[in-house]
Amino acid sequence: MNIKWKEYETAVRETVKRKRSIRVLSVLCIALAAGAGALYLYYHNPYSYPLPCMIYAFTGFYCPGCGAGRACYSILHGRIFDAFSYNPVMTVMLPLIGLYIAARLIDWAVTGGNHIDRKISIRMLTWILGIVLVYGVVRNIPVFPFTLLAPGGLAEFIR
What we know:
The chain has helices at 2-43, 54-59, 68-76, 80-86, 88-111, 122-138, 144-147, 153-158. The chain has eight helices and no strands. It has one domain (2-158). 72% of the residues lie in helices and 0% in strands. The N and C termini lie far apart (81 Å). The chain is mainly α. Helix 1 (2-43) packs antiparallel against helix 5 (88-111).
């Protein structure tokens, strides 16, 4: 009986090790895909061929994500002010989102579980959602200080 238990224990360890290697390989593939996407965006000029926003196309209102493609393009080219003028909320939140995704993927690859989400406050997530929704409404108010929040509005104002 003791010999069978050791065989079982060894088999379980090998399975866990194999699954961890699959998780690590999956995370590396995700990172490679994200790098390929960043490389594509680096050479894809969204000023000439903009990514269409369906909300803007159908309603004429800017969604909270309008200008995010041009902002990411500007960040990749080191033009932080331009990125901020296209979408200030996304420019500020992008490092936080990237940090969360990296921490979550590393946690999953190493442990196979989700220990990161338990550390994030629901109250903080509610505040962030509220800020994004208010930003989406305020950037569509056609009065001077709010027009600066439209994609490229701040850059046009300064020039």
